[in-house]
Amino acid sequence: MDERVFGRSGQHASVVGLGTWQLGADWGDVDDKEALRVLETAAESGVTFFDTADVYGDGRSEQTIAAFLRGRPDLRMLVATKMGRRVDQIPENYVLDNFRAWNDRSRRNLGVDRLDLVQLHCPPTPVYSTDEVFDALDTLVAEERVAAYGVSVETCAEALTAIARPGVASVQIILNPFRMKPLYEVLPAARAAGVGIIARVPLASGLLSGKYTKDTVFPADDHRTYNRHGEAFDMGETFSGVDYETGVEAAVEFAGLAPEGFTPAQLALRWIIDQPGVTTVIPGARSPEQARANAAAAGLPPLSVESLAAIRDLYERRIKDQVETRW
How many CB atoms lie within 10 A of CB 308? Predict the structure, then answer.
């Protein structure tokens, strides 16, 4: 699989990575054996980038990755984790002492002395404009606790503020055919600055797979049930912030745009891969079959001008007005 470079850090990542929120919590149950099979299948399919966080399953996702990598010392894998969501979301909690404590926990969970990449996990907006926060992150690098750092953001404005910081190696942002606003300013700014872009929620929480109907029922412990209106965290993390019924209808139309040989999910992933400035896209997977199919999107041909135009038209007609004013 092709790899791309996080410009400022020089680190490499496969164009399709693996998001491991599903292996921790909030997507229904995935048992440990199945989680390890997902990681193994992704690696066998050419994935060299895993994305996790200290709150996914209260550390379970990090620990599962560590268990897998202990058994595969031959693999070259870039593992990115996140920190900051284990405390009240106020700017005052984003200080060096907390960073060190969170870093210690993640290093234990992942079984490493130094984290490859640590990201602030969608912190309060004022954090992005606070010099002391980025001084503290620079200290983690100087202390060799982390090799590089980045941010995970909710809004394009937050992304642009972070890109202007000289030490930021990557920005993780929601980007998919139902969330196109980052194309306008964020991706060009990241390319100019040498900042990597990690595209998350690439399938709009599964909507773009084309598998759901208005009658689909998700488990009670699945965020697609309990966070549909932003009850637990930012609404944009669930179905990309698109109203579910609208999303299901638009997803049917989207599936009809898939070229021969593409599944709807692969169409969404290929669309993201084709966007200039994207370093890696991190679909999740609850089964080895999903992991394999997601990775296969990297080997499909770039989309035609006609396909790109049809996807843009769908977004403009059905989705844009719901999401662009908020994120």
Answer: 16
pTM beyond 0.85, yes or no: yes
DSSP string, 167-208: TEEEEEEE-BTTB-GGGTTHHHHHHHHT-EEEEESTTTTTGG
Within 10 Å of residue 78's Cβ, how many Cβ atoms? 21
Joined together, the tokens standing for residue 22 give 């599903």
Are 47 and 75 in contact by the 8 Å Cβ rule? The answer is no
**Whole-angstrom Cα distance, residue 251 to residue 261?**
18
d(CA 60, CA 24) in angstroms, rounded, equals 5
In this model, does residue 240 exceed pLDDT 70? yes
Cα distance between residue 298 and residue 279, in whole Å? 12
Per-residue confidence (pLDDT) for residue 24, from 0 to 100? 75
DSSP calls for 247-302: HHHHHHHHHTTPPTT--HHHHHHHHHHTSTT--EE--B-SSHHHHHHHHHGGGSPP
**Residue 29, pLDDT score:** 66
DSSP state of 126: G
User: What's the pLDDT band for 7 if we cut at 50, 70, 90?
Assistant: confident
pLDDT at 14: 98
pLDDT tens, residue by residue, 183-226: 999 999 999 999 999 999 999 999 999 999 999 999 998 899 99
**Distance (Å, rounded) from C-alpha 86 to C-alpha 95?**
13
Instruction: Say how far apart CA 230 and CA 225 lie, in whole Å.
Output: 10
Residues ≥6 apart with Cβ < 8 Å to 166: none
DSSP state of 94: -
Q: Say whether pLDDT at 25 is over 80.
A: no
User: Each residue of 239-264: b (16+ CB within 10 Å) or e?
Assistant: bbbbebeebbebbeebbebbeeebbb
